[in-house]
Here is the input.
Amino acid sequence: MPIATIFRYTKPEVSPRKGPEGFVRGAREFIRKHVRSDDKVKIMVSGGVDSAVTAVLFYLEIGDRLYVTHIDTGFMRMIRGREESEIIAERFSEFKNFKFINARQLFYEKVMGIHDAEQKRLGFRRAYEIVTDQQMNESECSVMTQGTILPDIIETDGGIKSQHNVQLRFSEVQKIVEPLASLCKDEVRKVAEFLWSNYKMKVLESVSRRQPFPGPGLSVRVVGAITPEKLEVERRVNDIVEQMVDEYTKRRFDTNLYIDENTGEQIPFQSFVAIFDGVFTEATKDLMPLLREKTRNSIKCKILNANVTGIRDGKRVYSYPLCIESHVMLVYDVLKEIGSDIPLRTSFPRVLYRVNSKFGSLRYAVAIRSVNSIDAITATVNEIPIRILKRMANEIVKQCDVREVYWDISPKPPATIEYE
Ligand code: XMP
Here is the structure.
């Protein structure tokens, strides 16, 4: 299959950190240079800030020659009990050529039942390529654009994870134009704020404070083989956690996303839940001296039998995480040391700390993850007080078929933000 020619705006004269207005001027010039006056352009939008900003930049230049599609892949979230795809369709209602398609069946066919993370990602990407080809054809578009940003390209080309929007193979797309390819998330947020204050398009409202959600959606958070039941539990638990982290962040900072003006750090950058079949094996005894070195309290550990992704010496690793539990509440200084040091000295790519459990024959274990980051290339654990995490975990075990709730205490690196 031919590989489309990609035009990336990689060297903007003005960085959005210095001046979003200058960046927008440059990006619009870049679009004019690569799109002819009779070209129709397609964008697939996920609802996130990157694709929303890209859609608006193109819309400002080419108006209704922009054809916008949102795919319900079946792996979108539940947001406060509502389907995320429905919310996205409402936000894009200002675009005349907006189309919503339900492609759940195709995505499920390509992804459900696959154990290996990269194979799942490739299955997702294949479904994305097929739907995009169909959509390009149907709207007779000659150019495609995407909200691809710099970390997406670095991670995929560096072999850490095959992101859904990089290294694509289409049969109907010859040309792809990517205006945000040099930016990190905090810079895209600055552009979004600038565009919102100038153009007030509905799709931009509050989008600059929206947390990232990966293109393959919940498919990379249902770790291992996906079943419809496991996916439904994930959707529910993820909604509980997003809501409770949001409430906690608003109490602490008066906003759902605090951005440090000096460093660009976003607190939290991302908060979510991953779900696992709760199958464990005993950890070997030789781990104990290492753990005892970190904490004077007695600590128990076991291994979760589910491969998750991490990074070692800049390369991808894929193996089981270590789970620890303690009868006394451990403090962050200790947790942080365990979370970053154990993966460096063992084969475990990350460490999970147990915050609640329930007796019974329930199948699933879940991990809550909340991280702070500037650019998604590195990330630190968002130090939510353990008593708040316990409250979240109580809610989860009360409402859902979940046996054990863990808190992910590993930064990136050695872990990655998502699990697959
Ligand atoms: P990791 O898990 O590699 O993620 O530390 C870094 C950031 O990228 C997001 N992510 C994706 N975004 N398509 C996307 O658009 C993808 O395939 C994809 N995979 C990961 C992830 O959520 C985090 O913000």
The chain has a mean pLDDT of 95. The chain is about 35% helix and 25% strand.
